[in-house]
# Entry
Amino acid sequence: MLIKAGKNNQLAQYSLLVILSLIFWGNSFINTSFSDYTIYLAWALVLMQSLCLSFIVNKQKLTKNAAFTGLIYLVLICSNQEYMLLSPILGINCILLLTFYYLFHMYENEFSYPCIFNAAFFWSTATILDPVFLLTLPCLWLILIVYSVNKWRAWITSLIGMIAPYFLLFIFCFITNAPYFSEIFTYSTSLQFGFHWPVFNYSFLILCLVFMICIFSIFHTKQGFYDLEIPKRKKTTVIMVFFFYFLVFSLTFGLNQFNYFPLFIPMAFFASNFFTHQKETLLRESLFYLLLILILIRIYVL
# Structure
């Protein structure tokens, strides 16, 4: 019923997004001193990210229920208490949202060099907050291939965009004598390659449920893939590339459940598509209420 109402009334869906965010953070607000502003800042930051994701999806006309995409993103963030605290995770997701914004505009503006540079620049900036994500930068080139970019200047522009944040950081470290680059080297040598099973717990159970919904949605999308308009088809493919690249990346490097957060943006898109286009009303409503109940149990019971 909530999903159906959201299709016809976006204002109601955005209102639900704000109300649920307050409910999800209610336990933290009650048990935290008012002077601890970090909890309130984290809540505002996640709410802003959810609204921004809805804005991006709506502007690109990727789904009929853009507000619901932000709502699913909020649910994913609240799947683990670590995501609800002020941390570099929220900063990286903010930067990734900017990256997605320019990735989509890259296609709209006929592969304009400023959009390519900005997408590469923000993606590279996210890797400064967590150097392990340096190995995700080739995903940007896969996206250029999806867009059929064959101009060498575009590829050079993307490379310059990737280098620019580290060049600026090098100048800063040189002036302040900060040991950032030596810390990156030490961190990179400690990485372990090879497939690692994730840690199974209650939070991971929630992610698994959304993940299965996403896989079902992807298969459903592929069935009618060539019926989509070319721009929407290309952008949907970009989200798929991002999703599967980061999924393999996370499993390969043995990242724990706290490091699946880059998947939340594409997962929110595919899950919202499932809830929006699923014809079985009972199934979609049951799964959505199940997600909400699982989140509330994690926050207020466990």
The first helix runs from residue 2 to 8. The CA atoms of residues 24 and 299 lie 7 Å apart. The two ends are 28 Å apart (CA to CA). The mean pLDDT is 80.
